[in-house]
Amino acid sequence: MVFGRRDLVPGGVANDLLSNLSNPANPVPTLEHRQGADDYPGAAARLGGFLLADALRGGPRHDNVLKSFASRALSGTLLGVALLGLAAAPALAQTRNPDRDAYFGETHVHTSWSLDAWLGGNRTDPGDAYKYFKGEPIKHPLGYEVKIDTPLDWAGVTDHSEYVGVIKLANDPGSPISRIPAAQPLILRADTTAEKNRIFEYVVKLMGGPPTKALMVPAIAGTVWKQNVELADKANQPGKFTAFCSYEWTSTPNNMNLHRNIFFKDCSKVPPMPFSALDSSHPVDLWNWMDTQRKAGNELLAISHNANLSDGRMYPTEVDSKGRPIDAAYAASRDRNERLIEIKQIKGTSETHPLLSPSDEFAGFEIMSILLGDPAGRFPHIVGSYARQALKDGLAMQDTKGFNPFKFGFGAASDSHNTAVPYRQNNFFGQAGAADGTAKERISGVLFAGMDPRVVGTAGLTGAWAEENTRASIFDAMQRKETFAVSGPHIRVRLFGGWEYAPDMLADAGWVKTGYAKGVPMGGDLPPAKGKAPTFVVWAVKDPTSGNLDRIQIVKGWTRSGQSFEKVFDVVWAGNRKPDKWTGAVPPIGSTVDVETATYTNTIGSVELKTVWTDPEFDPSMHAFYYARVLEIPTPRWTTIQSKELGVAPPDVVATSLQERAWTSPIWYTPSAEARKTAKSGTTVADLKKKGALALNDAQLKALLVQKSPWLQNTVTGDKYQIVYGNSGKPASGKAAAPFQTGFITQQFAANQAQLQLRYVGSKMTLPSLTGNVADASYLATSSPYFINDGKIVTALVGTPIEIAVYKVGDKYIGARSNEFGYANYEIIPTVTELAPFR
């Protein structure tokens, strides 16, 4: 492994160059800025060639980079090495590059043609969106001008397909739609808050009720869809900018966001009208329609909406939205149609959650938990709402049931309803029209549909590794999942996996070709094993207009006996930090953020990071996935920047700084049949029943556990710990307990309710999924409720019940958790007297 070597740029001249390009106050670096300047021309040439070629290749997309570089690099040495680098630069975008280039695009944005966007004051159309993405300024709904920081390579406008364009047409006196009775409630009679609220309430009723057929006829919806296609065709410029025909299928049953964005490969083959949630609110019906389109020669794919808003319904493991069991047919249909997921957008991040990944110190990035519309008496469930847990569940289902419904790639987007999109912390102008259109309203926390605008974040983007900037090439990249997500900045990242990569392959200029020839890129499946452990090649380079890089991590997930696990490995990092001897974790890079001035400097971190890494804990008998996560150094969050501009304290509901990041699509490992034979066989509930095991009823569970402190062992990991099952509620006698009696306090609980406490759980234990942060709970001696109902011990993780059935086999008691796919992995054991023996 390589840790921050100078020939990989950290601390070198290329680092100095990009730091200066992205910080105008800094001087142009000279040879005196560093020691060991012998590699200066090479580093500068690599970076100069990269920047200039990238700017020229992308046309107007990187004018700012080109101008910045030109204005700062016109010294003899810098200009010479820059041109030297340019001479060996990658081919221009108009020429197919077999090694593929990274193209950044938007997959989720709304214009005035969406009902909710129009109500927010948006009056722009998809044509304006494409102008914005190409770098032209457009108007914010409040009338001021907004402009993108770095133009994009491609985009698809995804207005809601349900009543698309109807509210805009209803308010156009020249439109025939404005004269039909069904459209009258949508007409804004006065520009007042009361009138807008009236229409909003009607729209909510309209979307939640039976379809209004008068507003769905092809003469209306078909006309708007045709205009959408025409505007995409007009904006499409092969080799320079790609515009896709796309839309959003907007299923929101009971405020559960199950939305999908649909992308078509060829605009000449799109249907007369899109399939909408008015046709069906069930994802399986959408996929069936997509299959029909594909059979007719119309290639398309779906990208699922940021799942944190789905109330746990985006990634089901038991039944689908129709109540039918998740089976192989469901998994195949989902995989065939839904190739990517949206892992980051304005309304939060859905990679993971600190309670789902308690050992991941970076799991709390831009968390936003809410249900759209903020229905009273409900809060969102995190189980079933985050991508990493879904990936782990997919592995467990593959291992135990033979199919994986969650084998998706990563992308990110905006979901902006302003047409314009804020991708950068220093250029944030909200996302909901007039509702959050000023800094004062945002920092004041003016609620909109239950959303705190201070928690709303900047938009993400999808990077696609494609041969050229065309519809076909970028669509194919999405189809094969060779995509990555970024939180806003244009960080480039590559990941290859294989069995034959040499430790020094990155020293070869043709390492990308080797990556493809001897392995698979992100989104792929490792070929059959040819070595003892898989090796991964990972590379990332910073956005020249953003923060330097802190580190690259590999996130691994695996499964055994129905349980799933995860671990985050720091594989390459900036500077001379040393990993912890016992945990391997790399210390924080530090921070240059000045909260008072809302600024930072690129005096820490690296421009480029890369390494070849081999899994040190590989077990060939276990299913696994791997993806890379790239972190920038800390930079100020938009709330800090705008609080400084307003002269007020930064809000206390979000961090003052953040670490922007990128995520690659995963690479999967599937063990061969021969390798599976070496796996240790776990015990299933079916196995126990064959041995005559009997499930304990409520009375037996209470006798075994209540006011007891049994020791348990996870038979998969071998870890041992104690659970204290506290006294249950009101005593059976009905007589109140006296103050000195043990049940005096707990008698206030219901008869079958009590509290439990975990003990002796260490932070280095290999914890199975859906346990919460039990290491902290053990240290802090906190408790959580448990119930005994219907022969189950019931606990909960943010509102999702986790049930444990206990079986008696001879003199043994074995427990089976409800989320472990039929396995019984917990055994009550004798009292432990030594916790960490090493003698």
Number of strands: 33
Low-confidence stretches: 1-47, 49-93
> Percent of residues in helical segments?
10-25%
Distance between the termini: 33 Å
What does the overall shape look like?
A: globular
Question: Biggest β-sheet: count, sense, barrel?
Answer: 14 strands, mixed
Strand content is 15-25%
Number of H- or I-type helical stretches: 20
Structural class: alpha+beta
Could you tell me the radius of gyration in angstroms? Answer: 28 Å
Mean pLDDT score: 88
Would you spell out the secondary-structure blueprint of this structure?
Layout: H1 13-21, H2 40-57, H3 63-72, H4 76-87, E1 101-106, H5 115-119, H6 126-133, E2 138-139, E3 145-146, E4 154-156, H7 166-170, H8 193-208, H9 218-235, E5 242-249, E6 260-264, H10 283-295, E7 300-304, H11 328-337, E8 338-342, E9 344-345, E10 348-349, H12 387-401, E11 409-411, H13 439-443, E12 461-466, H14 471-479, E13 483-486, E14 492-498, H15 511-517, E15 519-521, E16 535-541, E17 549-560, E18 563-573, E19 608-614, E20 624-632, E21 635-636, H16 638-646, E22 657-658, E23 661-664, E24 667-669, H17 673-676, H18 685-690, E25 694-695, H19 698-705, E26 711-714, E27 720-725, E28 753-759, H20 774-780, E29 784-789, E30 792-797, E31 800-809, E32 812-817, E33 826-829
Parallel strand pairs: 1-4, 4-5, 7-8, 8-11
Antiparallel strand pairs: 1-12, 2-3, 5-6, 6-7, 9-10, 12-13, 13-23, 14-15, 14-16, 16-19, 17-18, 17-20, 20-23, 20-24, 21-22, 25-31, 26-27, 26-33, 27-28, 28-29, 29-30, 30-31, 31-32, 32-33
